[in-house]
Amino acid sequence: MSGGIANLTIEEQLQQICSKVLDEIRIFYELLTNQELNVNPLQVYSKISSVKDDVEVTKYKLGEYIIRVREAIQDGDLYLEILNNLERSAQNIDAAGYRYSVILSRGNKMDDVTYRLLVVMAEKLMATITQLSESIRLLSVNPNKSLESSKAVVRMEEDVDELYRSFELKLYEKSGNDLVYIMLAKDVADRLEDSEDLLKVSSDTVTYLALERS
Fold first, then answer.
1. pLDDT of residue 45
2. How far apart are CA 157 and CA 57, in angstroms?
3. Which InterPro entries match (predicted)?
4. Tell me, what's the pLDDT at 71?
5. Between the CA of residue 171 and those of 78, 139, 186, 203, what are the distances in Å?
6. Burial class of residue 140 in the structure, from the number of CB atoms within 10 Å of its CB (0-12 exposed, 13-18 middle, 19+ buried)
7. Fold of the domain spanning 1-212
8. Band of the pLDDT at 3, cuts 50, 70, 90?
9. How far is 18 from 58, CA to CA, in rounded Å?
10. 40 falls in which pLDDT band (50, 70, 90)?
11. DSSP of 170-187, one letter per residue?
């Protein structure tokens, strides 16, 4: 198999995995923003978990393919890095979804400020994975445009860092003495922030690939 065909195949599969991660974030966002949830939050979380499991299976299959065609391509290690980061992002979102469902099950309610910060973090995460997918798509179409999408990811990662710092500060100011709630809420934000960092690292890797092809 030629390297060009293998690259296209890998990049198309990476885009599909990005789409799965985006679906996972959207379900988490629904859990987060649906104020009149009429089902057990853990039932909604099970949908998040199902998508995460699908990402892990797809990641394993694509990783196996990359190893198989490694001699025909130059950038197998970079593709594997993106793939591993996508899987870890999916696992983080799964963990955030579980912890938020536990918060809801306990009857805890976030104050308006921390809640809004968390909502915006989730929105930024959806925008980031969309941009990352686009930057991967453009690698073989227009590497210079791919670089532009990667730069957008960097800007969003900076925004999420700022949101995370504000969330952490407001959480400790407004949450009283419920240490279990504080630990759960902080871990939700931690997982979202870590996912954003992983996606930014993946975007940096796409930047290297785009620069090679520019």
1. 94
2. 27
3. PhoU-like_sf (IPR038078)
4. 87
5. 37, 41, 8, 30
6. middle
7. Methane Monooxygenase Hydroxylase; Chain G, domain 1 (1.20.58)
8. low
9. 11
10. confident
11. HHHHHSTT-HHHHHHHHH
Alpha helix locations (H) across 106-178? Answer: 112-138, 143-174
d(CA 58, CA 65): 11
Polymer length in residues for the chain? 214
Amino acid at 209: L
CB 4: neighbour CB atoms within 10 A? 11
User: Are the C-beta atoms of residues 24 and 55 closer than 8 Å to each other?
Assistant: yes
Per the CB < 8 A criterion, the answer to whether 100 and 32 are in contact is yes
Tokens 């871990």 found at? 187
Distance CA 58, CA 110 (A): 35
